[in-house]
């Protein structure tokens, strides 16, 4: 009876070993289990006794797989089949072409069936993302408050979110500025402006892209109830690196301005004009902690020759934590034909905390 149980136990062990992958290391150690994946730096092996084990890829001497593995090669090909190794060469028994020999140093990835399906699903989602995928964003705040012999409040809030894929980019942005002075009552508002918009970029090639935008603006001290701009055009990625992008763009837009009633215009004023749109945008990370963004847009008026608008925005941010930075922002809005008695320039200098969510764009 004991001999039968012993033979049955040994048979189970031999059967399990026969149905398992084996990884032999250069020091002679051997792991038996399931090869899950490798990125040519480490290999993950799931074992029954030791659990998940990560071994250095360079320490692997030989592999014998009982399951088909997906081997990604440096030339972009993928070879699928059971694997054995000999003298630094992977012998892969494929179902399509039979035995294929692959040098170990040409292998960049190894995946089992489950890992390969997960990888394929990720690639498919990158190519066909949902509208809710890949969003990242920032929230910039600035606050100044005095009490005592003076009583003032100045507050700025800026938010930007972007969804970036290999094919397109959607940007949503908004800025609000408010200031008041209650040193000598009654309290009076000294600044009140809101800007925002949405822009979509679509890559037609690796360098060229088309874009469309819709911008909106309100400024109490320009008597501007609403400025809305609808436009679009063509752009070019002059620099397109992971740490730095620099774009040139140009096109046209249709602008509508609605000014509230004033002494000069008791019934208010509405202006509707066409504009040329030209500009550039720079985003760069100088190091792991410091980032700089800058954008210039010029809008020559084609309906009223000689008039134009100009926009400049620049932000420098120093990272304090992965999600927290300190930012300094300067913004300038110039209008060549303001209402009588009003200044052409509106400038904003703000500093404060920046909160970041998501990855990639910011």
Description:
The protein has 362 residues and is mainly beta. It folds into two domains: 2-127, no CATH class; 135-357, Beta Barrel (Lipocalin), CATH 2.40.128. Helix content is 9%, strand content 63%. It contains two helices and 22 strands. It has helices at residues 2-18, 113-127, and strands spanning 21-25, 30-38, 42-47, 51-56, 60-64, 69-73, 78-86, 89-94, 98-103, 107-111, 135-146, 152-164, 168-181, 188-203, 208-219, 224-240, 244-259, 269-285, 290-300, 308-319, 324-335, 345-357. The strands form two sheets. Strands 11-12-13-14-15-16-17-18-19-20-21-22 form a twelve-stranded antiparallel beta barrel. Strands 1, 2, 3, 4, 5, 6, 7, 8, 9 and 10 form a ten-stranded antiparallel beta sheet that branches. The chain is elongated, with a radius of gyration of 31 Å. Residues 4-18 have low confidence and may be disordered.
């Amino acid at each position: 009876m004991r001999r039968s149980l012993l033979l049955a136990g040994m048979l189970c062990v031999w059967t399990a070993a026969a149905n398992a992958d084996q990884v032999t290391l250069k020091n002679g150690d051997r792991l038996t289990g399931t090869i899950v994946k490798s990125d040519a730096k480490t290999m993950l092996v799931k074992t029954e006794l030791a659990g998940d084990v990560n071994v250095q890829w360079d320490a692997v001497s030989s592999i014998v797989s009982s399951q088909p593995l997906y081997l990604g090669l440096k030339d972009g090909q993928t070879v699928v089949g059971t694997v054995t190794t000999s003298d630094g060469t992977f012998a892969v028994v494929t179902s399509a072409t039979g035995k294929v020999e692959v040098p170990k140093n040409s292998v960049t990835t190894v995946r089992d069936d489950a890992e390969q399906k997960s990888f394929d699903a990720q690639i498919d989602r990158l190519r066909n993302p949902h509208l809710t995928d890949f969003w990242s964003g920032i929230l910039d705040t600035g606050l100044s408050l005095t009490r005592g012999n003076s009583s003032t409040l100045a507050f700025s809030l800026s938010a930007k979110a972007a969804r970036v894929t290999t094919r397109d980019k959607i940007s949503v942005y908004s800025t609000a500025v408010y200031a008041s002075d209650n040193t000598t009552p009654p309290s009076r508002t000294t600044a009140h402006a809101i800007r925002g918009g949405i822009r979509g970029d679509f890559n037609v090639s690796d360098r060229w892209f088309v874009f469309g935008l819709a911008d909106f603006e309100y400024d109490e001290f320009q008597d501007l109830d609403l400025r809305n701009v609808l436009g679009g055009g063509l752009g070019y990625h002059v620099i397109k690196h992971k740490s730095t992008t620099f774009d040139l763009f140009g096109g046209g837009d249709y602008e509508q301005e609605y000014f509230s009633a004033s002494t000069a215009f008791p019934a208010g004023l509405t202006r509707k004009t066409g504009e040329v749109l030209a500009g550039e945008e720079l985003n760069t990370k100088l190091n792991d902690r410091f980032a700089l963004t800058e954008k210039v847009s010029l809008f020559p008026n084609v309906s009223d020759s000689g008039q134009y608008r100009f926009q400049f925005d620049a932000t420098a941010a120093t990272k304090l934590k992965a999600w927290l930075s300190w930012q300094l922002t300067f913004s300038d809005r110039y209008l060549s034909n303001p209402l009588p008695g009003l200044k052409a320039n509106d400038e904003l200098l703000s500093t404060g905390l920046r909160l970041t969510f998501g990855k990639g764009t910011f």
